[in-house]
Amino acid sequence: MVIxxxxxxxxxxxxxxxxxxxxxxxxxxxTIDTQRLDAAKNGSFLMPVFHESTSLDFQYRNLSLGRWTLxxxxxxxxxxxxxxxxxxxxxxxxSILEQNxxxxxxxxxxxxxxxxxxxxxxxxxxxxxxxTGYWALEPQYKVSADFGxxxxxxxxxxxxxxxxxxxxxxxxxxxxxxxxxxxxxxxxDIQNLSRTETPSLLYDFLPCPEQDDRIxxxxxxxPKLFIQVxxxxxxxxxxxxxxxxxxxxxxxxxxxxxxVIDIRFFRYGRLRFSSKxxxxxxxxxxxxxxxxxxxxxxxxxxPSLTIDIPTWTIPGFPSDAIGMLPVKYLFSGIQFRxxxxxxxxxxxxxxxxxxxxxxxxxxxxxxAYSEALESAKAESQIHDFASRCVQMVDYITxxxxxxxxxxxxxxxxxxxxxxxxxxxxxxxxxTGELNEGHILxxxxxxxxxxxxxxxxxxxxxxxxxxxxxxxxxADRQEADTRLASRxxxxxxxxxxxxxxxxxxxxxxxxxxxxxxxxQSREADSLLKDLFxxxxxxxxxxxxxxxxxxxxxSEKA
Length: 556
Prior knowledge:
The chain has an eight-stranded antiparallel barrel with strand order 4-11-10-9-8-13-14-15. Strands 2-3-5 form a three-stranded antiparallel β-sheet. It has helices at 8-21, 35-39, 75-81, 87-111, 162-167, 181-186, 281-296, 378-400, 418-447, 450-461, 470-488, 493-531, 533-536, 546-555, and strands at 30-33, 45-48, 65-69, 140-150, 152-153, 174-175, 191-196, 200-207, 224-230, 239-254, 262-272, 305-310, 324-344, 347-355, 363-369. The protein starts with 7 loop residues before the first helix and ends with a helix. Helices cover 39% and strands 21% of the residues. It has 556 residues and is of the alpha+beta class. β14 (347-355) and β15 form a beta hairpin. 21% of the residues are buried.
């Protein structure tokens, strides 16, 4: 084909578009688990799914797709029909589902085991004696799970043809749709969800058909190249976060028609490249070109990359081959991803939003990731991870049943919060002071006369001055008596609190009245001394000179 364009950029984009449209055969083998579907084959049906056109890749957008589901019988329908509910049948159904869950987990553990390297299974456990350059010595295997809906063409409505449809990846996509996602993320089951990763750019590559003569024919099992570029928080200084080769990938779908979503398990191997301590000129020049493209503010793009990879990773070479070979990879596209991570059931989960070109899918996906698999206990690790993923589906189904918006949902109150503990301690201390004051008032009424009581109150007030209002004291004693009668009657907690608050208010009012009375009396006496007639008169029997009278007046 001959491509004509206005510049090199448009020609390169046209070539990438044609490469994306080519029907490449996937290297990952696919299997499907239909135990739940086979258990209820008579009652299941293929329900049409109406999704956005950009939520799937371009090859699935013109297909009429659906998901295998089971009808949910409502309790009101059983009551109207008059058919009694069979509890024994429900118990049998629950036991069958539990057995199916164990069988699902066992099958996932058997399918997702990492492959065994035949060159290093002997009795001598020695490290790899290979020339790996800047690559790691051993690949790292992991298992992940995506939650969504496994879709099938509506023409294949026969449950017996599900396995045939799943074998053809061009007509059975997996849509990462999560009903009740907002309720799930807002629930307290997911912890540490506030950790947000730096946005990243994922660069996809395809092996070029034209390679070195020493390399055999490029096939679907050829290792794939993955490069993840991240920038700083301010969007500057792009760096390579991860550079790796991917191989030994496997896909296993689990159909759950009785739940709102299905599960897709991935097993993949990654051979990491030392992106921070390398001196590969080709990688450095590629990163410089990407930095210039990002800083230009134009359309994101990247050049192709020729990189030396270990020979033992190339199909056609023995697993113990030594040496490196240069391999050329063609740039095919970019994905922009933003992720937020958390933990659910002690498992790392992340919700990521992905944006790509016009031919790629756009949307968000909820994924769970296992720890790095160890060769000695890989099967047990996969078994535990798969069982937790099946439990996560129950959480997602419960979240999808909530119709109330998360912002209107009333969160359960913590009965042992720090705020409640402080309030209880404060209430107990105030109740203790109230009881102590009541006992002192009883002793005061029994031992002190009214005249002595006035003097006692005078001494307690101190700064206020003399307190000679017996009516205020009587009011306070009456309030104490009312409060004591309420406490003696063993009223409920609410009535005791009301009585305590009322007595506190009345005591404050009496204190303010006493202070105001004393202050008014002091003010009256001071005014009377300054401007009254009695203070200006002198005794008839005393003879004082005029100067002494003036000095005393000035002092006054």
